[in-house]
Amino acid sequence: MRWLRKSRGTHAWLPPRVIDSVRYPEEIQMLYGSCLCGAVAFETKSLSGPIFHCNCQTCRKAHSAAFATTARTQRAYFKWSRGKEFLGHFESTPGKLRHFCTKCGSHLMAEWTNEPEVILRLGCLDTDPQARPSTHIWTSHRVPWLTFPADLPCLEEGPISSTVDDSET
Q1: Tell me, what CATH number does 134's domain have?
Q2: In the beta sheet, which residues pair with residue 93?
Q3: CB under 8 Å to 28, separation ≥6 — which residues?
Q4: Which residues, in sequence order, are bridge partners of residue 84?
């Protein structure tokens, strides 16, 4: 692994302290993921951005958890490798689809239909992404009983973007 500073490029929407701490693998690594029952599987070529813990209300409700751990990957690299016939989706926000297994309910991926990246739900990864979470986002929506570790920055809202409304990562 190496440290890589991205500035005003792909991750221009991240605060500088987060950009400076994003870790990228030396080589492209295939990532594999699947649902709880194994009916649906996907693969992609590495992550294209940092790992976030999203605390927005929509992610909390969709995952029935205090937060959802997510990261983006290039749409061109993502593919469903098994079980497309078992996929369902829910449009949680206009233009944003959340994909899940209709057999077991596992949330696998979300997408803004007009964006070049998709959002993986990292709890479904079967391989180690070789990166670690960088930030808690949307902490203004956090549950009151959750405390945050001091080692990760917390943003009251999502990453700043001029093209995507990241109110739900």
Answers
A1: 2.170.150.70
A2: 96
A3: 45, 46
A4: none
Residue type at 79 in one-letter notation: K
Domain that holds residue 73: 29-141
Q: Taking Cα atoms as reference points, which of 21, 16, 17 lies closest to residue 4?
A: 21
Total tally of structural domains belonging to the chain: 1
Residue 18 is assigned to a structural domain of this protein: no
Quote the CA–CA distance of 107 and 112 in Å, as a whole number. Answer: 15
State pTM to two decimals.
0.71
> Which strand ranges, in their side-by-side order, compose the sheet holding 133-137?
87-93, 96-101, 107-112, 117-121, 68-74, 51-54, 133-137
- pLDDT tens column, 49-96: 999 988 888 888 888 787 889 999 999 999 999 999 999 999 998 999
Structure tokens at 100: 């899940």
